[in-house]
Design goal:
single chain; 52% helix; two-stranded antiparallel ribbon; 7% strand; 340 residues
Length: 340
Amino acid sequence: MRKFNEENERTKRRYLQYLKTAKRKDAGTVLKAAEAILRFEASTNYADFKRFHIEQAIKFHDRINAEISKATGKPLSKSTIASVLAANKAFIFWLADQPGYKSRIRHSDADYFNMDAKGQRVARATRETPYPSMEMARHAFNYMPEATDVELRNKALFAFLMLTGARDGAVASLRLKHINMIDGCVYQDAREVRTKNAKTFTTYFLPVDAAYQVCFDQWVSYLKRDKLFGPDDPLFPPPEVKPVDGEFKVVGFKRETYKNANAIRAVIKEAFQRADLPPFTPHAFRKTLVKWADTTYPTREAFKAFSQNIGHSNVVTTISAYCPVDIERQAVLIKAARSG
């Protein structure tokens, strides 16, 4: 059982509550902050925060830069280190205003958690993110089995992601009432759907491949006709598992949505691995679709419509995040203009 400091725990609880209710941070951000502060606390052997001094921050820099990731067996990435340091900087800055700490901690003490300029550049560097081509996606889709209800669901899930480019967190929380099969769209209502930044918008199905549309249409019909699912039931329901003849088996679907997107990510990764392809995530589909849209929607207005369709308020976000010009292409374009 790990060590802890009771006074520190109460202080952290107040800070995390502050992040959640005052700063309106989402649960994931709050959890990351808690984990980052715990890293620092452990490095001081759980010393009372009231005994904070800048040497602790300096030593923490050395410790975290030497730390090995349990997941990869390699040193922590610069982006991870930057995130941990930033979380502790914000915590110490907040702490300097709290009763019992004001006389011991100054706001400037938080600056000792700053990352050096070189590390910041490495952490912020934009890197090429792998994504499947349209052909790779279709190949993986074709390899997906359809023998069971769960397999039918998984294939429809793959098709839906290719039709919409929706984020996996939102997909996990969708219900049948959010789908409009007549107009061919999904209404991502932030009151009920876990969209990024609680944004509400409508996504129309993209005309990428008729096979995806047919698969998804059949799935929705199957849920309504055979499973008797209604508007408030999940679009991609979790399997219901119960003991049958001494072993656990899938006996149907639950009438509730997934709590998170872990199962959805696992389905997509498995689909690609089954086809001997890299284990791409659902988010990678967004880049696949942006690359496709770059040539499919050549006018400024059309591409703007596509950008809105995947949930971006600003088309610059779509271009900068998902459609960067790689170094080789940069050279070709620059040299071509010079020779012309």
